[in-house]
Amino acid sequence: MDTKFEVTNLITPVINSFRTLSNEWKHFFDIGITEYLQSQTEKYYFTNTFIHRSEKVKFKDIYYPIKATYKNLTTDFEELIDLFDEYKNITLVGSAGSGKTTLMKYIFLNILKKGIRIPILIELRNLNEYNGDFEKLIAEKIIKSKIKPSDDTFKRTLESGKFLFLLDGYDEIFTDKKQEINRQIELFVDSYSKNRFLITTRPGSGIENFPRFYDFKVRELNDNDINGFIEKIVTAQERKERIVKLINDPKNNNYTEYLRNPLLLSMFILAFESHPEIPNRKSSFYRNVYDTLYSRHDGITKNSFPREKITKLQRDDFEKILSIFCYISLLEGKYTFTTEYLSDTLSKVKATTDKDFKVDDLIYDLRTSISILILDGFEYQFPHRSMQEYFTALFISRLPSDKRGIAYKNLSNTLRESSTDNSFNFWSLCKELDETTFTSKFLIPQLKKFQKQLTQKDDKKLLDVFFKIIDPSLLPIELSDLKTEVKRIGIYRTSNFYNSIIDFFNIYDHKNLFLFPERSGAQNELLEIYKKVRAKSPHSKMSHLEIDEETLPILIKFNIVDVIKSFKKSIDNKIIELQNEIQREKENIDEILGI
Predict the structure, then answer these.
(1) 549 and 514 co-located in one domain
(2) Which of 147, 249, 391, 539 is spaced 20 to 30 Å from 9 by Cα?
């Protein structure tokens, strides 16, 4: 069946049913939403995956259900009507490669198939450099500004509640933009509350700030899911059986935890022929995948000549170029690349090598010969952002030891400004590839900054410093809408670079801080402060906690200083632990060298 015909068959019933509602809806479809649904549905109906990078395949042919949980509920998002009737607004929280974006595609197509709402997908990273507000972005996305956002037709269609807004990548919003973008999104959700909303994010992004949203956690693949995923993705029966046999071998139980992540499982399937073992380090997955991508096009052609990359570069040349490019682009906060950006940056990289090649030929090899870059519309990107993080970590690990600290410092400055959780996967790779230098040049210096800042004898100064680090807010403990009276609150940490370090390395359990109002007896007095701040910002459930004349005496009276000292002690202990590990490593090396 013709591809466009299949897509048209999917969206036509939806379009026809809405066009018959009123002349206003007919006009709305005539001015652009039909075009939007056609192009967006084609993009998701036929898709690339990590395994199918060089060809588009039907989404339904390769999709294995991704599940998410909320309390005792587990859902695969098949019964969308019932799910969104019960949970009107959902946050979908999952780690890198857990399947969030894939699940968004499924929900988009599934809601179209059911014909009950019109799906609108927005990539939230576009707001970082966008000059207009969120509602204007919606208008441009749907109807390409053919009518103004203030147009009554546009507003009435939004107020009708017929849309499902899929907001992808909350964790990609820059830290300095997050507060304003939060305000805009919350206002939009409140203004058009009859619609349904779903937001995806990695953990630790501060998504808990949103009122009336339920946090669904993307579930890891269990043993049955792993086998089902392989059954769906791998077509050759003999290869399928060999992969399943290896994964189910009891000897590999310690390593199969990696395969509970759909991305890493896809990587393993792709690299299986060349590397039929399960690596015990995450970085080994990426190395094996790169080897496979590079070598799979080096087979013998029909005329018995080995295929060549048109740049005539070798494996190590591509690896070096990719590692430099990834460091530069990650440093600049770039995860997708226009042709102009790609060409300009690769020209800079070329200048650092002694290789003679054309940049256009290099782009061709990266996209076609190796297929490590995918052209999606008008922008290039890696099959997954974690590949960019791997090559960046690889670049740093190969620098002279005295230069690595500079590289970590440069990236730290970038990560403070951009999405906080983007660093989690990157840090784990750095720790694997360059553990001693990463710990001594990045982690310990960051912790010592906290340690020094928290060495204050005056309680007020100590509170000031602590609050600058954690950037706290008061937030209801129970989920409620904006109209429900709040009776229990906790102290919530805003997601930022510093809190990410504490969380990633499991240095301190922040439950004591969150439950401080309730456990200390400060609940009622802090609740009054919360209500006053809320009165000034009625569209937000979160109230930023300031150290002022009213708040300071309450916090000191109920001994929040003890919580802060416990926080500092955890940092002190972690620094000592890490320094001892580095010293033991040095002594072991000295013994080997006979020093």
Answers:
(1) yes
(2) 147
Q: Which two tokens stand for residue 595?
A: 């020093």
Which amino acid, one-letter code, is at 369? Answer: S
Amino acid letter, residue 485:
E
In a domain, 251, yes or no: yes
Question: 400 in a domain, yes or no?
Answer: yes
- Same domain (yes/no): 128, 238: no
Q: 166: phi > 0 → left, psi -120 to 50 → alpha, else beta; which?
A: beta
Query: Which of 309-318, 420-429, 439-448, 567-576 comes out lowest in average pLDDT?
Result: 420-429
* Nearby residues of 195 by Cβ (< 8 Å), 6 or more positions away: 117, 158, 161, 162, 163, 164, 165
Query: What SS3 state is found at 277?
Result: coil
Grouping H, G, I as helix, E, B as strand and the rest as coil, residue 87 is coil
Q: Which residue in 188, 139, 185 sits closest to 28, CA to CA?
A: 139
Q: How many residues does the chain have?
A: 595
pLDDT digits over 396-446, tens only?
A: 999 998 899 999 988 887 777 655 555 778 888 999 999 999 999 999 998
pTM: 0.73
Same domain, 275 and 329: no
Question: What confidence tens digit (pLDDT) does each residue in 157-172 have?
Answer: 888 888 999 999 888 8
Residues 323 and 369 in one domain: yes
Q: Are residues 214 and 71 in the same domain?
A: yes
Same domain, 277 and 139: no
SS (H, E, C) 237-248: HHHHHHHHHHHH
> Are the C-beta atoms of 493 and 499 separated by less than 8 Å?
yes
Where is the domain boundary, 218, 244, 272? 218
Torsional class of 581: left (φ above 0), alpha (ψ -120 to 50), beta (otherwise): alpha
Continuous segment of H or E residues that includes residue 121: strand 118-123
Q: Provide the 3-class DSSP secondary structure of residue 289.
A: helix
Structure tokens at 128: 């970082």
- Distance from C-alpha of 503 to C-alpha of 453, rounded to nearest angstrom: 18
Tell me, yes or no, whether 588 lies in a domain.
Answer: no
pLDDT value at 224 more than 80: yes
Q: Same domain, yes or no, for 382 and 259?
A: no
Reading the block at residue 491, the tokens are 């102290």
Pairwise CA distance, residues 560 & 563, whole Å: 5
What domain range includes position 517?
459-572
How far is the C-alpha of 269 from the C-alpha of 263, rounded, in Å? 10
For residues 383 and 373, what is the distance between their CA atoms, to the nearest angstrom? 7
With a CB cutoff of 8 Å and minimum separation 6, the contacts of 367 are: 373, 374, 375, 380
Evaluate if residue 218 carries a pLDDT over 60. Answer: yes
87 and 209 inside one domain: yes
State the Cα torsion 215-216-219-225 to the nearest 10°: 180
